[in-house]
Every structure is written in C-alpha cells, then in structure tokens.
Design a protein that fits this description.
This protein has helices at about 1-20, 30-65. The chain has about 60 residues and is an all-alpha fold. α1 runs antiparallel to α2.
C-alpha cells in the first residue's frame, strides 16, 4: 500500500510540474527551479521508501532472532 502511495505522490509531482512550467517570457532559470524541485521531491520519496524497506527488514530480522 505504501508503494502505491509513493507512485501517486510521484504522479502528483509531475502534474504540479506541468502546471508550474514557465511560459514564454518567464525567466530562463525558472525551468531549472521547477525541475530541481520535482527532482528533490521524488528523491525524498525514494529515500523514505528505502528507509521503510530497511525498517521492514530489521523488524523481520528481529522476529526471526
């Protein structure tokens, strides 16, 4: 279930990125800021996912001990 939540969050990042994409005449650096924000958000979700997997493995290891 958590994996599905991460997928939905990732999709929402892309949708917000599309909405925030700069229009012609906006400063050129705005596109890089949107891309950076999207990448940071997705990276954060990825690290939370890895943390969840690690914690789950530790719980399973403790149960077997």
């Amino acid at each position: 279930m958590k994996g599905f939540g991460y997928l939905v969050s990732t999709a929402s990042v892309f949708l917000l990125g599309v909405a925030a994409w700069p229009k012609p005449g906006d400063p050129p650096h705005q596109a890089w800021l949107v891309i950076g924000g999207m990448a940071a958000s997705i990276a954060g979700m990825f690290f939370r996912f890895l943390s969840h997997r690690k914690q789950k493995a530790e719980v399973e290891q403790a149960r077997q001990a």
